[in-house]
Amino acid sequence: MNHQKYNNEFKTHAVEMVLKEGLTRTEVGRRLETSSKNISRWVREYQDNEKGLNLGQGGEHPLKKRIQSLEKENQRLKMEHDILKNSLLGQPSPI
Length: 95
Prior knowledge:
single chain; mainly alpha; Arc Repressor Mutant, subunit A; 0% strand
């Protein structure tokens, strides 16, 4: 099966044809020579994501990496906080 890669500009255009112009997903798919399933998925992803299309690799949410990074930083800061707190209280480090 041939898997066509579409750039974000193409996908955004397709979504706008559905949402702004009121065309059906089938009609947009026919006009852009892609499947209506693709159009439906792009519209759903667009609607699910407040900031626009989530059209990255593997359908991964664009904020997922940012959230993971912030969680890791938060964990590190909590540990640093505990170490500093314990050093001020004269208690051994929790490490």
